[in-house]
Amino acid sequence: MTVRHLLDQTSGFSRTDGLKLVLNADQNSLEETVARLRDVEFNRPVGESFEYSNINSIVLGLIIERLAFV
Predict the structure, then answer these.
(1) pLDDT band at 33, cuts 50/70/90?
(2) Total structural domains within the chain
């Protein structure tokens, strides 16, 4: 998976899993939230097709956070 897949919403993460992740975030940090993705399965191959998922924005947020403080 690449940053482009996250930006294009073609990562393979589902909309449903993204909603669950956001609704159950409980004020966690981005790092804690992304760590919870270990249990999330892709609903299709990466790059195959578009499906909006909040997970993409969350992962991108962590990437930006990490790069901003390098």
Answers:
(1) confident
(2) 1
